[in-house]
Amino acid sequence: MYFLELAGEADDEAFAASEAERAAASAVERVAPGLATARGVRIDRAPTLAYTRYVSELLGRAEGTVADAVAVLTAASIERTGSVAVRARNVRATADVSTSEAERELGGVLVDRGFDVDLDDPDHELRVCFADEVCLLGWAVAERDAAFGSRAPTDRPFFQPGSMAPMDARAYVNLAAGRSLPEATVLDPMCGTGGLLIEAGLVGARAVGSDAQSKMAHGAAENLEHYLHRSRWDVVRGDATELPLTDDAVDAVVFDAPYGRQSKIAGHELADLVGGALSEAARVAKRCVLVADRSWEAEARETGWTVDARFERRVHRSLVRHVHVLDRN
Description:
Layout: E1 2-6, H1 13-23, E2 25-26, E3 29-32, E4 35-38, E5 40-41, E6 52-63, H2 66-75, E7 83-90, H3 99-112, E8 116-117, E9 124-131, E10 134-143, H4 166-177, E11 185-188, H5 195-202, E12 206-211, H6 214-227, E13 233-237, E14 252-256, H7 270-284, E15 287-292, H8 297-302, E16 305-316, E17 319-328
């Protein structure tokens, strides 16, 4: 068993758990604010998750007090040796506990069992997370690679306002293609500046994109050359409702539909554009994530998709993203 430290806000927890389960973990169950357990984890894929900070091998579960955590650690069977650091967290400040006291008391238990304390470069890290009335203890086995969080869209060679944050783009790619990564081919048929494709390429997938506007297709190619110069990728100018691909050509489709527009877009009414793109996505892939400013569930079902999940994620006061996680019937 493992436990996951989820990132984001309280409203993101179901979304974070879904990303973890579709991309790196099995039987994910939320047990307390910001914490979840998992029966199994693909350790090699865990660092590529956007909304999971740490994965730890579960050592024990206690009531949310230092004394109970000490009792569980004292009783636990530990076969490890070497140096150790204890890292305690009060997740979202939901527990009435002192993390410094927890680290001191639990560190003392480990010293009594023969460990040396090394806070800078330990052989083992014991993660101790308190949330509400729950405490989970475990040995850290994977940490999120947070480098994508430092790559602002404005840093790209080609930038347009409204570009999606890399953290969210990473999560949507994982929701769509996680089960087949890193060998997957991921398509974004409305690629814009290429933000989703960049994250797809950085987690190991072959990124394929198209956009109806020549400016966007060329700009996306410029961005992918900058970030994925050692990876395989392709970008073309094309219509999302008439993809130049054979049936089942890719593993997953992920796209961000136009927001707040009712006029014609590249010759299509918005509903026709999204419906046509969903239909083509169902022809070329078995999995899809559609991000939009409204629900397109009915259109997804009409075009052959099963809606596995849908999340509403507030970006700011005037924009809520609707994230549709789709599997082909």
